[in-house]
Amino acid sequence: MSNPLADRIRPKTLDDVVGQSHILGQGKPLRRIIDSGKIPNMIFYGPSGIGKTTVARIIADNSKLHMYKLNGTSASVQDIKDIILDAQSILGYNGILLYLDEIQYLNKKQQQSLLEYIEDGRITLISSTTENPYFYVYNAIISRSTVFEFLPVSPKEVCPAVKRAFQICADELGMKLKLESGVIDYIAHGCGGDVRKSINTVELCILSADRSEDTLIVNLDNVKLLTQRSNMRYDRDGDEHYNILSALQKSIRGSDENAALHYAARLMEAGDIISLSRRLLVIAAEDIGLAYPQAIPIVKACVDSAMQLGLPEARIPLADAVILLATAPKSNSGIVAIDNAMEDIRKGDAGEIPAYLQDGHYGGAGKLGKAIGYKYPHSYPDSWVEQQYLPDNLKDRKYYTYGDNKLELAAKDYWEHIKNKKR
């Protein structure tokens, strides 16, 4: 059985690697490190299929170090112990390079077992992970390594790799190749920055291609079927999930309804209306807040409707909520105020509640001095009377500052008028 096409055409030199010019281009940091010949401990971080393993293999293949490869999904403590024993033997005379793929799957004990040896240089560790290493990799490993982030590859960069893959397949079969217009671009745009996925799609296209004598014919309709939804790079527990939610909230906060709809569409296309709904409820209170408080019940109604309808109809009330929030006036005065108040509590600045504000609805409360002297605001004109409500040690504390929107400024003017005329 032959290897997958993506393995058969894997680049052998850095110049052949698709994308990652921000770290592998001439004069860029990772390229300089590799060219120096002195390989430090490194962690390659980024989504699948964008060259992490390829670059690690190129480094390993060109290194004078004795090389081992492990995968975090299957490696055991004994596997690591065996490598450590070799590091102490003649095999480790010039040093050992350990390429550890998917390091996030190793537990803390397994990762800790490597520390002494990467600390003194007997083992050089190159590891790769699809998860954020600052969340999933042991801190001691992080502190002894340099983290390089690999980015999704642009369609423009993927196109040559797709074209090359088609030609290699045709050459292997000893046949000519006929590609319908738009095939290469469609695969390059549909792979979502995953080069391996695009190469695998090429292989599927070849296997299902029409054949006319000595010619392979790849038509666009077939390609569309084979690449459907492949541009959706989304993991509900991974970085991409939180990146989309972050971009959604920041787009709404920035009053860009078009960008907000784009990120909402990504979540809906992935079927994740629960995360979208929860984030919209947060945004209504956090970013629109008191500038348009009606946004909260309106968004709640949209979310309830979406949950009852389900997709695809749920997209309609959720889109309404997104547009409403993005185009509404903004105020974060509420979240700033409560965070200011909670900061005092965390610091221990609570203080004793004034006795006249304490509960007096029980026998003997009066004997304890509870609720005596309380002024009931509704008994006074405009339902307001000057009275201290905060504890004595915080009596002059100001947590809330009125926002500069129409609604909050109107409330500010109202209360300044009421309170000033009573003084």
TrEMBL record:
GO terms for biological process: DNA synthesis involved in DNA repair; DNA-templated DNA replication. Residues 38-154 form the AAA+ ATPase domain. Belongs to the AAA ATPase family. RarA/MGS1/WRNIP1 subfamily. The keyword Electron transport does not apply. The lineage of its organism: Bacteria, Bacillati, Bacillota, Clostridia, Eubacteriales. It comes from the Bacteria. Pfam families: AAA, AAA_assoc_2, MgsA_C. This is Replication-associated recombination protein A. GO terms for molecular function: ATP binding; ATP hydrolysis activity; DNA binding; enzyme activator activity; single-stranded DNA helicase activity. Keywords: ATP-binding, Nucleotide-binding.
